[in-house]
User: Which sequence fits this backbone?
């Protein structure tokens, strides 16, 4: 059974828009060849990197959401590593949305009638040992 994944890929910032479109197609083709399906591909644009990677200080960010068998993810990672246009990539398992029970989606969770109880701060030797400097132990 296929699972939902998303890949954030940083591409080299050299080249034209036509070359960029060709590289994005090179990202999507292996997913399709491995029996997966590309749900969406969003160009986040050219951005400055936090630090130089190789000789790159800027890159094009591309977010690709897709479905593929879990057994094919390692092969997809291997193919991304072989692609010289890719500076960095990260493939994450995408969780299925649960709008009603997700606090981030505006829901209050399963126990809507119960309020969250505050956690009491730790006291005693256990708390003070964690606050002590690591060199003091």
Assistant:
């Amino acid at each position: 059974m296929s699972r939902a994944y998303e890949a954030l890929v940083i591409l080299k910032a050299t080249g034209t828009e036509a070359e960029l479109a060709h590289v994005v197609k090179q990202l999507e083709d292996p997913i399709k060849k491995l029996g997966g399906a590309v749900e969406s591909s969003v160009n986040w644009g050219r951005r400055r990197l936090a630090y130089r990677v190789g000789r790159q200080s800027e890159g094009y960010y591309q977010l690709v959401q897709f479905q593929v068998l879990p057994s094919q993810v390692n092969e997809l990672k291997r193919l991304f590593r072989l692609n010289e246009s890719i500076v960095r990539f990260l493939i994450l398992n995408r969780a299925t949305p649960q709008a009603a029970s997700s606090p981030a989606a505006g829901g209050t969770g399963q126990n809507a009638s119960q309020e969250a109880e505050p956690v009491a701060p730790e006291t005693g030797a256990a708390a003070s040992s964690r606050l002590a400097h690591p060199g003091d132990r």
In short: The first strand starts at residue 3 and ends at 12. The helical segments are 17-33, 73-82, 125-131. Residues 3-93 form a domain with the Alpha-Beta Plaits fold (CATH 3.30.70.60).
